[in-house]
Amino acid sequence: MASTISRRASMIAANKSVSLKKYIDGLRKKQQDDEDYAKWDITQPLPKLPVPDLKLSLEKYLRCVKPIVTAEAYKNTEQIINEFSKPDGLGPKLQEILIKIAEENDNWAYDWWMNEMYLSNKQPLPINSNPGMIFPKEYFPDEDAQLRFTARLISGIMDYKCVIDQKELPIDRCTCREKGQPLCMEQYYRLFSSYRIPGVDKDKLVNSTTNLALEPEHVIVLSRNQMFVLDVIVNFTRLSDDQLYHQLKRIKRQSEDDENTTSAFANLGYLTSMPRDEWARARSELIRESTNRDCIDMIERCIFIVCLDKEVKQSSNKENRNDDEIKSKKISSNVFSNSTNCNENSINGYFNGNDINPISSSMTLTAFQMLHGCSSENNSGNRWFDKTMQFIISEDGVCGLNYEHSPAEGIVVIELSEHLFRYMEEKRKQKLYRMPSICELPTPRKLRWKIIDTISKWIEKAKTDFDQRIEDLDFCLLKYSKFGRDFPKKVKMSPDSFVQLAMQLAYYKLYNRLVSTYESSSTRRFRHGRVENIRANSCEALSWVKSMDYNSGFTKNQKFNLFQKAVQYQTDLMIDSILGKGMDCHLMALKQIAIENGFDLPELFTDKSFDVSNHFSLSTSQIPTTMEGSFMCYGPVVPDGYGCSYNPKPNYIIFAISSFKSCSSTSTKLFAESLEKSLNEMYDLCIEFAS
Question: Model's pTM, two decimal places?
């Protein structure tokens, strides 16, 4: 065993790419030359996540509840909070227990948050949980180009994995509020070592062993809905780009030869699109056979998954609702009143307004391909959604990934992807040594399942249900080009707060009310930090959006003053969240402590207002990318809600907006139009009054 570990350690050292070392050293030097970075001692452990003050958290809770519930409900909630927070009440007792837990653990919120946010959620992973990320489109004149790019991608990922495994990746730093402060890197270490196992009651997130002798040496390649084991390390030696290319070509040929035959052993991936408890039951049935247990084991232990997709000819949900369907929606029509900028055309899932540049339908199709594979007629069966990282490379040059969300946040996946592509480009420009012939390499092993009738029925049901959910997704991309993130900065406002308030105004224009809004904020300044919630549905936001109504009677100057107050409150809330003073994780912890310690569940958590406040009809996040044409997208988190990711560039903003067609009270097209109008009005207001 010792000699095996020694040989593997030597292999890792030998396989470290000279070009990658040069690239990483360049990143490290750039940090060392930055005065803000240099003042921080990165050898010191990160601070623990602080426990917020109970009184302040309860005050924040009341402030976010007040704009979204009735006056009567709010009064009742206020009384409940007063009782809960009394010196002899249950609140201080639970707070004391939490403080003790925080002293004994690196991060008091992590496990509770992981269970509530992901592992206890029974919803299917695709659309509902797994985001899709779109990479810049590649040009593949033929199949060889697709496979050679895939080989370079696999090789680049393996180079990067060596750096991650050795924890030599330069530490990420804060770019604002204590600029240069080191950030927790634990999420990177899970990207290529994690797997989510479905459970009837709760899923389980497992990490592969760190024992060098047992490290996985293969990736799983999906082609034509079939799965193959591609060994990337053979006899302690990494395969070269050429060797990977030839192995991929073998896989592609066999999958094409076996397609639609009894030798296909295809379509097992549909099972991972099921509700988690249903997939757990199907999995238990599946692994009764030792052959299937071996197949599942190979998938669970692989480093990552590569999906070689067919070119998409059409998408199941390629068109949004027609005008008659939209008019039947139960949505206020006042979004169109006094509007000169609304455009009635919505074609193939993208919106083209006066101040929105048309994003081609092919980009929307690309988003669908990364989110769900487009349909069973296309690539939806060419996935395995439980694996953390799935890299998708289509015959027509469409590329991206789908990732299982529980191990890491989107910004970490983006950072890794962008570093990877920059490194691949630098590596491509260099003349590299070609490895010897691949004639001695064994043909990649195909996963051959033993499928009984029960499993066949599960697969068919999963396939049908998945197609229905794909059809139900109402999605569009907006490229708002009147301004980008530079304009709010110019008028001395936070770009993120500016966009968040635009979404509040857009929603209010449609529904004459605000709703509970989720925006993730990173807490990576702290040990094992993940996210906290920034709630944009504030009292200040409500006062401002009401003033923006055409018949409100407010002067433009009054509207601008209210807007400034709303922006400031939103910005203060954002700062509190990233500094560990958020409300949501705190209340979640108090609830779990009550349950785990045998207390009667406090009325705070059975109150209707608590349910309303945690029903996120707007699920949002800022997901900035630097690669041109790259963005991330996801679906709504509740049946009657919207998902809205946004990528603010200097001079434009990309929005990826989603809802469900089956909901009678939502329309992605109308929300997009309302958002456009809101941004225009905010621009005009700021131009007139901002100094």
Answer: 0.92
